[in-house]
Specification:
alpha/beta, binds pyridoxal-5'-phosphate
């Protein structure tokens, strides 16, 4: 079931890239980020952007972000990391060398299945200005109530992470909850 779903996700994505992006002259190569040698071979002189998902959904594979950021710099392209499944609390790709980070705000960050949102974080004011321009020109903005809901969800998400970390430390230290 899992693999069937994964195949469907990949087919839908690659259909989108092939049938929509290729019309605009954008070509997409796919590479396994777990094999850096093969990954580097997929980079061509025309590569403008490396798009990485780490951890991956749904198989939770982890990529070596600093090593791929180094490759991106060597080949003169940008690195964008989809950080949705780590969240900004447990992984900060810009500190690891990424130029751009995206999050699905729909998932952990909002946390209540009450909105659909995406977040783009840029490593420099110049990149941020370019993205802001595209966002403004294309009208891809949230409804007026959504940012408040997202912010509330994020505060809840911070508490859940903090408590999970505390519980983890509690058990690691060999302590037991009072009621056991
Ligand atoms: C890793 C990852 N990034 C982005 C998205 C897109 O999320 P949204 O539902 O906010 O469009 C998904 C959706 O499943 C995802 O798994």
């Amino acid at each position: 079931m899992k693999f069937w779903l994964l195949k469907i996700f990949m087919e839908v994505l690659s259909d989108f890239f092939t049938h929509v992006y290729e019309q605009f002259g954008i070509r997409v190569n796919y590479a396994d980020a777990g094999n850096l040698e093969q990954f580097e071979q997929a980079i061509t002189p025309g590569t403008k952007l490396i798009w990485l998902e780490s951890p991956t959904n749904p198989t939770l594979k982890i990529a070596d972000i600093p090593a791929i950021a180094k490759l991106a710099r060597q080949h003169g392209c940008l690195l964008c990391v989809d950080n949705t499944f780590a969240s900004p609390i447990s992984q900060k790709p810009i500190q690891l060398g990424a130029d751009l980070v995206v999050h699905s705000g729909t998932k952990y960050l909002a946390g209540h299945s009450d909105l659909i949102a995406g977040i783009v974080v840029a490593s420099s004011p110049e990149l941020a200005a370019k993205i802001k321009f595209i966002q403004n020109a294309s009208g891809a903005i949230l409804g007026p109530l959504m940012p408040g809901c997202l912010f509330g969800g994020y505060k809840h998400c911070l508490c859940v992470y903090a408590n999970t970390a505390k519980t983890h430390r509690f058990w690691q230290n060999g302590l037991r909850p009072m009621n056991r």
